[in-house]
Every structure is written in structure tokens, then in C-alpha cells.
Amino acid sequence: MDKTNSGVAMDYHQAYHTSDETSSSKKLDTGREQNKEGDIPYKETSGGVESVDRPPAQGLTEQTDRIAVNKSTLDLHLTTHTGEKPFMCKECGYRTANRTYLSVHMRSHTGVKPYKCDLCDYSAKTKGHLDDHMARHTGEKPYMCGECEYRTADRSALTVHMRKHTGVKPYKCDLCDYSATQKGDLDKHMTTHSGEKPYMCGECGYRTARKSDLSRHMMKHTGDKPYKCDQCDYSSTDKGCLKKHTVTHAP
After folding, report:
1. Domain range for residue 201?
2. 250 and 173 share a domain?
3. What is the pLDDT of residue 129?
4. For residue 30, what are the contacts with CB-CB under 8 A and spacing of at least 6?
5. Domain assignment of residue 79, yes or no
């Protein structure tokens, strides 16, 4: 990176860290003069200097340390130092440093899902979620665990899976020392403190705190026994019972 471009980038960064508005203005002007000489293509907008979609000037590479092409980009970067989160959801109090993240978050309240699957009626609030869904149509599982042979089409599923290897359990109960790898598991645990049993059988009134327990209970009414022994005609409503049964076939 040549000295001229390096100086411009550092001037941008230091001017905002020292809160010297006068100096900052001069530095931005210096940046504009540099642009006029042809090193960095730009165009003027109502928000300041904005880069155009052209190759970067010689000497400016991805290794450049946080060069801000415009003021808004630098302001967003500075929040990583200050921890400031100026954008807040009025519905639930969620806060973020990025206006775009707030826009995506608001879809959780509005129900807007702009990303549509063209193979089924699935829709998503983010493109990433749609990409994960599309992999289910293709059968592709691009995310692979480096510790075992687990593969998945969902990046977040891989993140959760990796906690089995690392032992990380980020979801903590504030009433006891229980912790979990997934929020859903913590939610289930919290019902042991509250006594809440939201899942009810429509046939007999049985209630439970766990959806999986209700599914298993319903098999008593339907007679379904999905867990089958591959060595005899034994079947069960419970996977654990099948495992115990298979021991009887062991030599």
C-alpha cells in the first residue's frame, strides 16, 4: 500500500477516534482531493462520498486495515470499539449498531418474508435462511464438522452441533445451575421451575411440558410404534426401549 493512500486511511480513522471534527473535515477533503486525482473513483451523494463499483486503486487491498470509503461505514466500524447500539426496536427493545440488522429484525414482528422459494411455498425473512432451505431441495449439505462426519445444509445447525465437541453451553438458567447448548432445551427446562404444561392431548387430557412427550403419548392412541427391531418383530413407541431390547440379541 503506497504512503499517500495509507495516510488518507489513517487520517479518516484517527480523526474520529480523537473526535476532532475540524481535523476530520479537513481529512475528508484531503480524501476527496485524492479521489479527484483518480486513485479512488467516487461519486457525490446526499450522504457524502460514496464509492462506485469499480476495481480498487492500486495499493488498496483487502488487507487494508478498516479503510472507510465513506463516513457511515467508519461510524459503523467505530461502534465495535464503543459498544454503542443506537438502533432500537420499539416492539421488544432489541438493539443493534446496524440499521440493516434492525430492518431484518422487524420482520419478526411484521411477519414479512420477502425471500420466496420457487420450488415450494416456503418463504424466509433473510436470504441466508432461503439459501439453507434450497439445499434441502438439492440434497446438498455443504457444512461439515471437522471433528466428525456430521454434515448439514444449515450453517446454524453446524454451530449448535459443534458445541457437542467444545462443551460450550451458552444458554444458562437463572434459577439453577442448568445450562444448554440450545435455547429450545433451556425453554423446556424452565417449565420444570414454572410447572407449566402447555402441550395437551386432545383424546384424554394428558398434559406435558415437552412436545416430544406429547408425540410419544399420542402413539398410545394411534397404536403407532415407529421404532422397530431389525432382528425380530419387536417394535416400540420409544427409541430408548428399542435400544434396551436390542441388547437381548447381543451374543
Report:
1. 169-251
2. yes
3. 86
4. 8, 11
5. no
